[in-house]
Amino acid sequence: MIKRIFADTKRCNGCRICELRCSFEHDRVFGTKLARIRIIMNEEQGEYKPNTCRLCYKCIKACPENAISKNEKTGAIKIDHELCTGCGKCVEACPFNVMFLHPIKEKAITCDLCEGDPQCVKYCPEKVLFYTTSQEFKKLTN
Amino acid sequence: MVGELKVLYPNILEINLSDLSFEIYESENLFDKYMGGIGVGIELLNQHLQTGVDPLSPENVVIFAIGPLNTYFPVASKTCAVFKSPLTGNLGESYAGGRLSTAMRFNNLGVIILKGKSPEPIYFVSYEDGVQFVNAKPLMYMSPNTTGRIIREKIGHPGNRSVVTIGPAGERLIPYACATVDRTRHFGRTGLGAVLGSKNVKGFAIIGDQPISLESNTNYKQYRRVFREIYKKTTETNLMAKYHVLGTAAGILPLNALKSLPTKNFAESYFEEAENISGEYFASELLGKRVACGGCPIGCIHLAILRERWEKGTVADIHSIAVSYDYELIYALGSNLKIGNAKDILKLIEAIEKEGMDAISTGVVLAWLAEAYERNLISPKDTEGELIRFGRVDDFLSIIGKISKATEESELYYTASKGVEALVEKYGGNDFGIRVAKLEPAGYRTGYYAIMGFLVGGRHSHLDNAGYSLDQKVLNKPITFEQGMNSLMNEEEWRNVLNSMVICLFARGVYDMNTTIQALESLKINRTDEELLKIGKEIQRKRLQFKYAEGFSLKEAYQKFPKRFTEMMTAHGYLEKENFDKLLALYSKEAEKRYAIKVD
């Protein structure tokens, strides 16, 4: 079974350390626009929902340059920035709105599961995020 | 672009409201010299504000400032606001969390200066490349949160913005009106809401979404290490656990047990119904969710769900609202009013939130009214037929709006809208007029140092020097008065340093001297112990200098102490006037020595 990032959204407190940590690890910057995990915020209700790649692989099929593939070790999306032209086809194809264009490099970016050690999960203070299989996640949250 | 935002050299946004113009310029060596937060704030206030101006005139100036650690480190999540206070008439200083400091950081703004007065009600939005002024006439007299919702709908950029708003109380220039940040946080104390109202600023939004480079701004390896250490300390040790689990409301039961919980307008120090309004009760019965300020792993903002039934005959029969609660609100609107029902406290919080008033000041004003009514100092004619009785939530609910909306014709409520000091001047009742230097105090009847802390603190807040905490520390370890006053002053100087960073003071246990120095060093800011302490002392000198130049009189504030301070039971027993005299003399002597200014 492939492991991916799951979120027990009810408990998310909106601190957004996952976003900061993600951009920190990947680009050595703090920037919510550079994060591969994003918090969807409903400020009126105080509801926050982490959103990241579900590994549906629709982007792989959508890429005209064959720049996107599956990381064999983790099953995560792997994007070859040498091949990526920033055409945005994958961004359009992503049903969860978690494929982004890097605002500076103008190449596609999405969650790469940090080579199997996702930093957002590690640093989530509320332990909202889990790196696990869907079966395990169900058990954990029941 | 990444890399352009530097820790020490953020920009200054200066807005002249009179002609709705703005200027963005570099801060040059301002942050290098004065750190940030209150250090930068007090310096700029001195530069831009003329002595003696009316706090509600266009000549007043508001400075918002963040500091070097904001966003870079966990729990460095506050923004400092400095201005001349319409409530105390001297230093107005307030701190708020939410996402404001993060939005300012990602907008590359270190400071926002507001000057003048807009000809019409407006709100403004600060984008990456400039400021837009928007007509706020349709928003007039709306609650802070409705205003916030409308502004958010209009400006877009969800998730990358912070919105500050005022309510009707701010527009009506009530000197203890607050400014609300991102729904649940407030610049509560000393009346920022009224100052914004006097400038015709209904609110403002900061959009911040530029990435900041960690590589060029930090000693990267050291930064990673220090970040990890601070993160671990905040989440894995018990240094901050209480703020997460029960929140500040955790203090209700211990303070009650110590006979230090102000009850019935400070007349009593023990509330028999404390169990029903304790942090434990709120958490188990009413807590809906904990949320966090931007970049803070603690999540101390406790939102209770207040469920209310609609009137019979309506289709939807129930509605629920999220109300944020804290220790101070539970004291001010609970024990101090003898309200022993947690839901009733939430109703009061919500009513005050809608008007946009500081909950501590409002609670103490309500308590004075209830006591004056009980003692027949004010008559039913004064109250316009309203009953104002301790323990009756409906009495208080029906007068909150009257206070917020009062005109001069409605004498009692109009005076109440100016604070306890004004009430005492008009109606007497100084013996139970609970305020220190015109500010209604936070909820601590712990002993001498809490009260003296209020008196000698730069902004007369319990957070200036935490006298209430010193009182508790010395319960089993007595110290001399001289040591006590020195300790208060040292604490205030150190807090000036932390307030320059600008960290949340809940994390003061995490940011000790060594950690602070290392965090700064990892951002390429090298400071020694002595240098930081010197900065703290210098800031204190400037804060005091500002106060005395604006006419603050320590002696006068002391003489106005309500008799109740010497009649009340505390954790340290009854307090005696002679000892207050001694403490004041010790303070004056030491302050003159430390800051080389005449303190009287």
Automatic annotation (TrEMBL), chain A:
Coiled coil: none annotated. InterPro entries: 4Fe4S_Fe-S-bd, 4Fe4S_Fe_S_CS, RnfB_subfamily. It comes from the Archaea. Keywords: 4Fe-4S, Electron transport, Iron, Iron-sulfur, Metal-binding, Transport. Residues 3-32, 44-73, 75-104 form the 4Fe-4S ferredoxin-type domain. One of its GO terms (molecular function) is metal ion binding. The keyword Transmembrane does not apply. Signal peptide: none annotated. This is 4Fe-4S dicluster domain-containing protein. It comes from Candidatus Heimdallarchaeum aukensis. The lineage of its organism: Archaea, Promethearchaeati, Candidatus Heimdallarchaeota, Candidatus Heimdallarchaeia (ex Rinke et al. 2021) (nom. nud.), Candidatus Heimdallarchaeales.
